[in-house]
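Re: beginner question about structure tokens

> Can someone show what the tokenized structure looks like for a real chain? I only ever see the sequence side.

Sure, here's an example I had lying around. Input first:
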Amino acid sequence: MTAFENATQEWQSVFTNYAKDLFWLLVPIAMVWRFGQIALKGEGLTEALAELVRFTIFIGFYYWLLENGTAIAQAIVHSMEEMAGTAAHTSQGLDASSILNLGLSTLGNILYNNYKIFSLNESHDFGAIFDVALGIFFACLCAVIAIYVLLAVLAVWFLMYAGIFILGFGSTSWTSDMAINYFRTVLASSIRLATIILIVGVCQNVIETIAQKMQAGIAYSSNNFMMMTELIISALMMYLLIKTIPELLASLAKGILGSNNHQSDPANAYANALMQQQLYASSSSGGGGSSRAATEAATRHAQQLAASMMAHNDAASRAEERAARISYPKPERPKPPPTTSSSSHYIHGVDFANLKYPNPDAPPPSND
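And the corresponding structure tokens:
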């Protein structure tokens, strides 16, 4: 593991230099876009100076992240490893070779205690042969777990040193989320690695305790068979826990599970439902055929959920378009009464001051 770590650390300077070139290549584009908008809007010098200050702070902050991105990522990973190691009482951290050595040493003890099965002159004991077979299966299972742990550690190293190039996209406002996502992914990978340390620390202590009890056995017995069964079950439990629990906890840092702001997007809803169903399927299914069937069922469920989300969004957008096309008549305001010097003569728009009353002494009008 040390050789892999040293090899990946050599990438840091190379990817950092390319990230800096990309960063300063995007700075003029972002500057033209920002100040071009101010010029098109016709805003004054005050707004231009305020935008210059904001742009300078923005560029300075993301360039500082680019310069110290690897150190920040290493601090995140090491702090999570230290926290998990303290909780699991493992001072040496996560070492895949220790898991492989545990399986090989257990197999070596079983072969040493049952060496007579390889002799042609001795009578073969079926129990001893079965004991050796279980030991070989246990060693193979420990090798698979060690490889999976090694891949998890390598993924963190690849992400820290090769993913530093993504920080070069932090110089523009429309790509700065990619730079922040680098640290979010590093945090998720660190949580995943810390969870693996916890699982390996607990299960490895149990397996080592059982293996030490088996070292006193010299022949096949029912007690020895029970111990081998406990070893197999413990190794299987460690493998299944490593496959399911770390991914579930790492999703909390990425905001995939239980996030409401992702549910409105059909693509994110599809990914969310697919991940949740696959995690449940992988944790609940034991065999290969049942795992494939559960994965297919999870995929169908996620596709149905995404289709329903898209139909709902389309219906909502069509309703908004219909509401925008409808023009409602505006109510007319009543006209105010005419204004005069004596506005008190008007009651409900009638001028009682200039109202002419009929004369009762006047002759009636003639019909001629």
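Each token stands for a local structural state, so reading them left to right follows the chain. The first helix runs from residue 2 to 9.
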